[in-house]
Amino acid sequence: MSRFYGYVCRKCGARVYPRHWRCPSCGATELETVPLEGIATLLTFTRIYMLSLAFHERFITLGIVEFENGLRALGKLLVEEPRVGMKLEVTTGTVRVDNGNPIEGLCFCESSEDRLLTKSQ
Ligand SMILES: [Zn+2]
Predict the structure, then answer these.
(1) Cβ–Cβ contacts within 10 Å for residue 103, how many?
(2) What is the pLDDT, as a whole number, of residue 53?
(3) Distance CA 31, CA 63 (A)
C-alpha cells in the first residue's frame, strides 16, 4: 500500500496533492487523507536535464497524473518512453541524494494494465 496520501476537502470535496493548509477551492481547513493508490493516467510530462549535484542521473522525468478519483499528483516517472494517456501505478523510489542519503519520493511506474493494452495494439 502507498505511503503517500492525497487530501480531500471535507467542505467542498476538492482533491489536492500535496497537502495545503487551506483548500485551494473554498479555503476550508479540514482536509481528509486518502491514499494515493490504484491506476493513474499520465496527463503530461517533462524531462529536466539541468540538475543539481543531488541528482545522480543525466535527466529525470516528471509527470502529472490523474487518479480514477480525480486527484492529480506530480511525481517522478520510472518509465523509459512515457506517453500521454498511459496507465501508471504508484511506487516509491529515490528522487535525489542528500549528503549521500537517498531521499525517497513519489514515483510512477508502468502498470500491468498498460503493458497489456500496449501489447494488444
Ligand atoms: Zn474546499
Answers:
(1) 11
(2) 79
(3) 24
pLDDT at 45: 98
**Listed residues: CB within 5 A of ion ligand 1:** 9, 11-12, 14, 23, 25-26, 28
CA 105–ligand 1 middle distance (angstroms) = 26
Spatial CA neighbour of 38 closest among 98, 89, 91: 89
Q: How far apart are CA 41 and CA 21, in angstroms?
A: 26
Centre of ligand 1 from the C-alpha of residue 75, in Å: 23
- CA of residue 8 to ligand 1 center, whole Å: 8
pTM of the model: 0.83
Question: How many Å apart are CA 119 and CA 58, to the nearest integer?
Answer: 29
pLDDT band at 52 (very low <50, low <70, confident <90, very high): confident
Nearest to 24 by CA among 37, 34, 15: 15
Centre of ligand 1 to C-alpha 69, Å, is 16
Beta carbons of 107 and 88 less than 8 angstroms apart: no
